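Chapter summary example.
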Amino acid sequence: MQELGTGVLSWNKSERVSDRYGSVILTPSPDNEKSISLIQVNAGRRGRLVVIVKETRQSRHIGDLFHGVFPKTPKVGQKITLGEGSLFFEDGGVGLHPDDGRGTQWLDICALYKAHEQTVTLCFEELPNS
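The structure predicted for these 130 residues follows.
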């Protein structure tokens, strides 16, 4: 697994509003929206985004009411797979284009809300091409 960075996991508002849920950012703290620079490995590679929880706190987000998904607090040390697809970097964040070409929920929104506002190490795990 390639480490991309460590910080508090979040995403840009447009990800939720558009229902894409396709990329995430890391910030220095829950109150700081400025994204941390990520290590940019080769975009286009197929794999998984995985976070390893370093520190937990209760998320202040209400969740996604339309989809019935709400924040849950994980355990320190827990690995959470955010999704699988082709790696891309944009707007200070990182995401995955899904293999099936869907236009929404590119990442697992249940996993996203479990990792939201948690201090994590964000990693990319490359998968063999199928």
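To summarize the output: The helical segments are 13-18, 109-115.
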